[in-house]
Structure formats: C-alpha cells, structure tokens
Amino acid sequence: MISKWISAGLALLLLTGVGIIAHGQEEEIIASLQRLSGPVSVLQARTDDTVQGRNGLLLRAGDTVITGADARATIKFRNGSEVRLFPNTNFRVEAKEREGRERLFKINLLMKLGSFWGNFVKRRQVVSINTPTATIGIKGTTLRVVERDGQARVAITEGLIEVSNDRDKIELQAGQRLPNFTRTDTLADKVEDIPFKIDLKSDKRDLKFPGDQPEEVFITVQLIDIKSGRPVRRSGPLYLRSNYDKIDYPTVANLDARGFARVALRIAPPEPADAKLNGNVFVWALIDQEDADDTAEGRILFTIPIPEGQERIRVEAETGETKRVQ
Question: What is the CATH number of the domain that holds 43?
C-alpha cells in the first residue's frame, strides 16, 4: 500500500448498492471519517473546496483527506473496511462499480505521501493502492504502508498482496514486510519477517450482561518478540477496533516504556441485529503511529449471547473450536 497516485481497483462497498461512482453518478457516498484527532482537512472533489474534517463527515469518490502534524483519522467504508491515517498524510479515495453478472466494486487509493494502516474485508472487491514508489494489489488484507522521501515501506499481517515497482514484482505474505525500498530496488532482496507483535489477554472472555447491563472488561496489552515470546520495551499510542459497534474505548491508550498497557473497555449487550456476529466479538489493538511497520496487531476474542433466531456457529474463546448453537 504505498501510494503514488493510487490508481487501481479496490472493490469495496458491497452493501446494498451504496457507495460508489455508479452509472455516471459522481456524488455517491463511499465512506465516512471517524475517530479524528489533530488537524484534519478534506479536499472535496465535487466542489474543489477544502473543509475541516470532523467525525461523521461523508466522503465521496475523488475526495482527498489530509492529516496535519500529530493528526490521525479513520476512513470507514460502508462494507466495514477501514483505513487509519497517520500524521502528515495526503490520501485520496476513488471508487467505481464494475458492471456484470455480479456486482464488483473497485476502490482506488492514492497516497502522495504519508502512512496508513488498513483492513480490507473480503467481499467481491478489488483493491489497488499506488504511491510514488510502488503499486499494491490486494483482496482481503491487513497491512501498513509508508511513503516518504522517495522510499516506501510495506508490511502485511493478514492476507496476501502483490507489490510492484519499476523494477520488480513480488507477492508478500502475512507476517512479512518490505523495509525502505525505492522504485528501482529488487524487491525480492528486501523481504523480511515482521519481528514483533502485540499480545492481548483478558481474565473475562465470556460476557453474560446480567440484568441486560453493559460489562466492563480489562485487557492487558504487551509488545513481544514473535520468535522468543519475550517482552519488548517500547512506548507508543494504541488504536483499538472491533467487529462490534457497541464498545466504548478509552480516549487515550498508550504502551508504557515496558511495552505494556492495561485498557478498560465498556461493552454493551447485543441487539437482534448483532445475531450476524454469531456471538463472536473480536477486539484488535495496533500501534497508532507510522514507525510500527515492524509490529503486527494483536487480537482477542470475546463471546456474547446470541440473540434469538436461526441456528448459529460460535467460536469458543479458549479453544478456538466451533460449535452450533441455537
């Protein structure tokens, strides 16, 4: 995900026809801004005006999001994919619908400079990210991309991507990264394993919500060396996310000098629409800054009651096994 003029397809937004340039309509909403901090602005393609970014601001094809020093912003696509922009980033989003027997959406991400972390869901989509240094083609993938001073860095923790520059083209697999490379480097010579990851633990994993009230859950976060399992001493801000939209996160969460944090989450009980989660709530944590492409995000699973309805599949929090529940 490196961006020069991210021009390629990122077919997202496969939700009920929302979201993209379809049939000549150039003002379709494709995403929204969320969880902003610091100065964020949006250059709107349809008016050529620059507006101040704010939580809930809708994004259309061709809009460019610009983060200032110490600023961050999340772009949340209609199908659940999201991109977390770090400071001093210029990031443009375009999208269009490919016609055919099955609806397929393309989203083009163009990053002139800056850095981001992204999670792209697997739903009949094609994604391509371009930077001045490289082009990245992805499907369902979790990765980081940095573009600075004529060099790029890419790291992937889930899925598979194809990275190309003017000289070479390679596939990068989960757990691998490309440290600083230029447009003319041989990419195959640059591939490394990601050395660190975030480990998440909690004493409470099976949530019951007695009295239909929210539950408070504490998770411990530790940065560790993947090979040795030993703690790594490094401080930094944390970004928390989930597949469940009824979680309150702390305003600020940081790893201390030991690479450790204890974070409180407030989780509300499920509603009927949450039956689609099959009782499985995941929480992810990642380092919320540009220089963390050497660190994989962590994940923890909580189980919640499944609202009444059809037969569902649940993943056991402790064993990872699946079982049918009613």
Answer: 2.60.120.1440
